[in-house]
């Protein structure tokens, strides 16, 4: 499976590598979970994508996040299971198959249920695995041996068990209720499948005449066709305009039906005219008022959205055609008052994409309150589950509080057929709203129950409807593990550990799962719910089919590789739950952000090749634990273990984006750009053998650690490099995916050393920048003078001067104290000008002391005492300040302290309090450099002037946020400092 160092390609080919390792992982069942193994369980069940779907960017994003968590915890030694599967997607499959039938000139009814289901299963076998195969391309570390489908035998058994159990407990019932009806799919849909859309519509005003001829009332509606089913008009009983009319009757226009005026506090007196038409069979609020006031319920709609016989002359017309015709008729009859433009919210079917119709229908319902209250108790008393970010807890709680009874029956054929059998022999062979029924786990059980109740001649027919898809999905966390059987998987892996999902599915799925799990298992189905954001397009807009702004993840995978896409999606997360923006050029089908991750992969690949070519064929294990012999070794080991700590803390707290960015900065910056460059000279032929081996040990050790750190984010390239680095034989089943995740060694972490190295790196970077500013030729070596008054900085720069010379191409490095016009090499004799000055000061103090002593001497006994003290103090002061002054110098002084001659033309920069000075005479074109500096000064001074103008404006200072004002002050100080430095540079050239 592995390549050797000699034939490792110079360029990384993600496509060959990724396909190879995906095949290896799956064929060898690397991710197969075993409930009998030790280790604390870590279990994730995949949010099952629709079997009709194809991979979109949301799937890729969610799967990448989950895989980071799963791979990380597996490497941490957890007994890990990521269980995959798909949802049967009743409505989506029906829509697809009925579209095919329409092309053939057939209907579902003509085909028949059995043949229709045969077609559905045939399609599932041939094309239903599309999204599963696409998920495989993401390299997800799921246990494919446990793949589930919501219509498979085990899950179907769980669905029947749940339905029958809830029915026996009185939590499932069949009744007439107002449901959300989708005319496009001709099925009821639940509240959570309704999408509210704001539309520009109209508000129609009509006059309804009082039956006694004494006048009329004016009503307003956004759905004029529903007036055909009106059975009353309601006013607020406290509305003085209309309270005298309560109890009277109106004559309904067109239908000429006498309807009452009722008083109900639900009516908002400020809406419209304060009079509300009541259509109990076609509006949720009217439904409640109709029940309270015993109004008739008149249904005017067929299930396909056309009007039925109760609509009179408009029978057979589509609802929107009828709307226009009803308005025209009312206008002709002289009862249309006016039409207003009106922006309002219209409920749309999430699947059918058409406005839903509230429709009175006999359906199956779950009595939701007992289950929702149980879930609320877990949340309020045990903080279970825990939401990340925490702000989604309130959203989840509010949803549980407001849930109404759940309509779970769907007028479809593809799905879990409702386990209820009707005794049609009791109602002339037809299923009616009053047909008696039995609920059972099987047809045989139903037959036995029905015979006992209705006799041997009973005729049974199973309910033709199927259950809402979310009913089976609500059981997913435990049905996939074997429930209702008490399986080893259920015992080991339930409750699951983490659910990763989008915020838009909290209502659809998360609440369903917590209610079902709390009821059937007595536990919440997962400990944590990690809510991720959306992947936005290059303009920061939500991707949607309607806008046509989606980005195909497979296209980006084909162009840049799986690892590059995965890493980009995770790295872009700026905080748990935040949306991410994906850069994309639609004309070229290119993404600069994914390209950057591909470049990162290439950087790692090239660094790994360099390291392995310098290990003399040895593996990290053969080289052994590193012995840090030099400053740079200790620095990179400290940084590596700091990054382990940082990464572990981030992932444990769901800071996946922060973890990815931290690893990136360490690999690209610390390891590749600095440490590898620092040790190159130690790897050359003829280098000190001890130092060379130490460098090899550190390189191999840190590289292997880097591969482990990065593996959850970029599994394919890290596996390929690790296999080569550790020289795994072709027949070996060892894999990086099952190695232990790095653990930080506190003894190797040295923050002070890292801080010192930051100064060295900053100095090298400053010299490089100055070389670039001065247009020094890349191959030319320069002299550099470092000036600082800080003994600590002098020590650090002295200790690292070999690194500065090597990486900044410095020929000679000298040191001087800052702002001294001239210094000389230190003398070991205390008798220099400083010493002489201190002696003079000391003698003055001595003379003053003697005068004081002479005065005090006039006091009996005291004189002698103070004379002795004064003399002793003088001796101590001179000795401390003069004779032992040398002891105050730093332990490591530069070997040379000299300043650049005043006449030398130089360029200078600052890092910390260190000034970096490079003499330019004979090195660069001074005139060209002078022109460049003058241009830079003009730019910086213009910026400073602009900032001064803002800060001198009282409106800005008084009204702008404090941090903005402070930012402007900081920017001004920085600009003034830059201008000062640039002017000093220019002065050296004059």
UniProtKB/TrEMBL annotation:
Reaction equation(s) it catalyzes: tRNA(Val) + L-valine + ATP = L-valyl-tRNA(Val) + AMP + diphosphate
Subcellular location, record wording: Cytoplasm; Membrane
Tree of life domain: Bacteria
Assigned EC number: 6.1.1.9
Domain notes: ValRS has two distinct active sites: one for aminoacylation and one for editing. The misactivated threonine is translocated from the active site to the editing site.
Ranges for domain Valyl-tRNA synthetase tRNA-binding arm: 925-989
Protein name stated in the entry: Valine--tRNA ligase
Membrane topology note: Multi-pass membrane protein
InterPro entries: aa-tRNA-synth_I_CS (IPR001412), aa-tRNA-synth_Ia (IPR002300), Anticodon_Ia_Val (IPR033705), CAAD_dom (IPR025564), M/V/L/I-tRNA-synth_anticd-bd (IPR013155), Rossmann-like_a/b/a_fold (IPR014729), tRNA-bd_arm (IPR010978), tRNAsynth_Ia_anticodon-bd (IPR009080)
Organism: Nostoc cycadae WK-1
Coiled coil start-end: 923-985
Residue ranges of every copy of the Aminoacyl-tRNA synthetase class Ia domain listed in the record: 20-582
């Amino acid at each position: 499976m592995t390549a050797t160092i000699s034939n490792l390609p110079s360029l990384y080919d993600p496509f060959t590598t990724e396909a190879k390792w995906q095949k290896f992982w799956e064929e060898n069942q690397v991710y197969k979970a075993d409930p009998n193994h030790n280790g604390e369980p870590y279990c994730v069940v995949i949010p099952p994508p629709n079997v009709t779907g194809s991979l979109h960017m949301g799937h890729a994003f969610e799967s990448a996040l989950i895989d980071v968590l799963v791979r990380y915890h597996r490497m941490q030694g957890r007994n890990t299971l990521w269980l995959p599967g798909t949802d049967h997607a009743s409505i989506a499959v029906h829509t697809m198959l009925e579209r095919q039938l329409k092309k053939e000139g057939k209907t579902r009814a003509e085909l028949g249920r059995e043949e229709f289901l045969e077609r559905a299963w045939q399609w599932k076998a041939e094309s239903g695995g599309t999204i599963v195969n696409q998920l495989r391309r993401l390299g997800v570390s799921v246990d494919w041996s446990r793949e589930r489908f919501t219509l498979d035998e085990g899950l179907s058994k769980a669905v029947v068990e749940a339905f029958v159990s809830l029915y026996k407990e009185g939590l499932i019932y069949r009744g007439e209720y107002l449901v959300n009806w989708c005319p496009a799919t001709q099925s009821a849909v639940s509240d959570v499948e309704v999408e509210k859309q704001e539309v520009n519509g109209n508000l129609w005003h009509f006059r309804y005449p009082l039956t006694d001829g004494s006048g009329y009332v004016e009503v307003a509606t956004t759905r004029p066709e529903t007036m055909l089913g009106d059975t009353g008009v309601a006013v607020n009983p406290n509305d003085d305009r209309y309270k005298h009319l309560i109890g009277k009757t109106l004559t309904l226009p067109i239908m000429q039906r006498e309807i009452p005026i009722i008083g109900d506090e639900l009516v908002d007196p400020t809406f419209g005219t304060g009079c509300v038409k009541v259509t109990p069979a076609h509006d949720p609020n009217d439904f409640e008022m109709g029940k309270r006031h015993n109004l008739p319920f008149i249904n005017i709609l067929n299930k396909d959205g056309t009007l039925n016989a109760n609509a009179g002359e408009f029978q057979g017309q589509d609802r929107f055609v009828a709307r226009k015709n009803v308005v025209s008729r009312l206008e002709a009859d002289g009862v249309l008052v006016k039409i207003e433009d009106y922006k309002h919210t219209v409920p749309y079917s999430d699947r059918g994409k058409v406005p839903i119709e509230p429709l009175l229908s006999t359906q199956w319902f779950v009595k939701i309150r007992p289950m929702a209250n149980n879930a609320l108790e877990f949340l309020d008393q045990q903080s279970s589950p825990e939401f990340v970010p925490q702000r989604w807890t309130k959203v989840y709680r509010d949803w549980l509080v407001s849930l109404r009874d759940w309509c779970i029956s769907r007028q479809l054929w593809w799905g879990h057929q409702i386990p209820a059998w009707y005794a049609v022999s009791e109602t002339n062979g037809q299923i009616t709203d009053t047909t008696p029924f039995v609920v059972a786990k099987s047809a045989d059980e139903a037959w036995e129950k029905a015979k006992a109740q209705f006799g041997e001649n009973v005729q049974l027919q199973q309910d033709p409807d199927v259950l809402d898809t979310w009913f089976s999905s609500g059981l997913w966390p435990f049905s996939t593990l074997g429930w209702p059987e008490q399986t080893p998987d259920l015992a080991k892996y339930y409750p699951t550990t983490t659910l990763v999902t989008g915020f838009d599915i909290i209502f659809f799925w998360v609440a369903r799962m917590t209610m079902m799990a709390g009821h059937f298992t007595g536990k919440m189905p997962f400990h944590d719910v990690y809510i991720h954001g959306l992947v936005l397009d290059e303009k920061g807009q939500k991707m949607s089919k309607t806008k046509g702004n989606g980005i195909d993840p497979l296209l980006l995978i084909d162009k840049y590789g799986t690892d590059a896409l995965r890493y980009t999606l995770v790295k872009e997360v700026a905080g748990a739950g935040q949306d991410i923006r994906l850069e994309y050029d639609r004309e070229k089908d290119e993404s600069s952000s994914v390209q950057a991750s591909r470049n990162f992969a290439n950087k790692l690949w090239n660094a790994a090749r360099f390291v392995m070519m310098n290990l003399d064929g040895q593996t990290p294990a053969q080289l052994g634990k590193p012995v840090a012999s030099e400053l740079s070794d200790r620095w990179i080991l400290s940084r590596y273990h700091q990054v382990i700590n940082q990464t572990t803390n981030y992932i444990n707290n769901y800071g996946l984006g922060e973890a990815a960015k931290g690893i990136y900065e360490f690999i690209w910056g610390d390891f590749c750009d600095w440490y590898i460059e620092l040790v190159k000279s130690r790897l050359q032929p003829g280098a000190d053998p001890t130092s060379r081996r130490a460098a090899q040990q550190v390189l191999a050790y840190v590289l292997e650690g880097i591969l482990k750190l990065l593996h959850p984010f970029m599994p394919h390239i890290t596996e390929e490099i690790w296999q080569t680095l550790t020289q795994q034989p072709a027949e070996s089943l060892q894999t990086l995916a099952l190695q232990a995740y790095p653990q930080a060694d506190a003894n190797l972490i040295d923050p002070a050393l890292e801080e010192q190295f930051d100064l060295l790196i900053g100095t090298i970077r400053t010299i490089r920048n100055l070389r670039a500013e001065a247009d020094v030729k890349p191959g030319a070596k320069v002299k550099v003078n470092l000036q600082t008054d800080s003994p600590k900085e002098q020590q650090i720069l002295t200790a690292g001067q070999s690194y500065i010379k090597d990486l900044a191409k410095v020929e000679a490095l000298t040191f001087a104290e800052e702002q001294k016009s001239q210094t000389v090499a230190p003398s070991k004799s205390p008798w220099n000008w400083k010493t002489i000055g201190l002696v003079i000061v000391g003698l003055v103090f001595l003379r003053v002391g003697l005068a004081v002593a002479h005065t005090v001497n006039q006091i009996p006994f005291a004189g002698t005492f103070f004379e002795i003290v004064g003399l002793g103090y003088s001796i101590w002061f001179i000795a401390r300040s003069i004779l032992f002054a040398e002891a105050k110098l730093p332990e490591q002084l530069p070997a040379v302290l000299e300043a650049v001659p005043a006449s030398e033309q130089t360029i200078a920069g600052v890092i910390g309090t260190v000034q970096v000075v490079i003499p330019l005479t004979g090195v660069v074109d001074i005139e060209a450099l002078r022109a460049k500096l003058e241009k830079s000064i003009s730019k910086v001074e213009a910026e400073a002037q602009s900032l001064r103008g803002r800060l001198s404006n009282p409106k800005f200072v008084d009204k702008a946020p404090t941090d903005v004002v402070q930012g402007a002050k900081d920017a001004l100080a920085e600009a003034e400092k830059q201008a000062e430095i640039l002017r000093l540079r220019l002065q050296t050239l004059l």
